[in-house]
Design brief:
Elements lengths: L1 E5 L4 H11 L6 H9 L3 E7 L5 E10 L2 E9 L8 H15 L4 E7 L3 H9 L3 E11 L5 E9 L2
Helix pairs in contact: 1-2
């Protein structure tokens, strides 16, 4: 597996992967807008056949960064892709003098929470009813941070 940098030109690929992983996916236009913003960066994990397996989208500035979204294709989950993406993102962020990374994770996404904890993230807050689920249910988000 390799990790490559993404650009606005990859928005359709990111939207397709996001739709595979989330009940309320972002549109191509949402990815175009996010990737056009100052400090935005995205990394795509591709297999040996250059097939996209997942991605991470971040926004950085002022020494801090936020993971906006991350997804791994359903059939490739629990294979180390998200961990590799987060490691590559952390490496890239260190090169631009980023010292702290934030993200939100739904309280019902225990696999993702466990991944982030294993990477050294700590829970620093909670956002009540942050995520919506199909049918109108609301789920809290844990705010997590990595860095000093």
């Amino acid at each position: 597996m390799n990790v490559i940098e993404a650009s606005v030109a990859h928005s359709d690929v990111l939207a397709h992967l996001h739709a595979e992983g989330f009940a309320e996916p972002w549109s191509v236009e949402a990815f175009e807008s996010a990737l056009s913003a100052p400090g935005a960066m995205a990394l795509i994990a591709v297999d040996d056949a250059r097939e996209p397996m997942g991605f991470v989208l971040l926004r950085a500035g002022g020494g801090e960064a936020e993971v906006l979204t991350i997804v791994t294709r359903v059939h490739a989950r629990r294979s180390g892709i998200a961990k590799a993406l987060m490691a590559a993102a952390a490496d890239k962020l260190r090169r631009v003098q980023t010292t702290k990374i934030f993200l939100e994770v739904a309280t019902d996404n225990t696999n993702a929470e466990a991944l982030y904890l294993s990477l050294g993230f700590a829970i620093v807050g909670r956002r009540k009813a942050y995520y919506s689920r199909p049918g109108g249910e609301r789920v809290d988000a844990l705010v997590m941070a990595f860095g000093p």
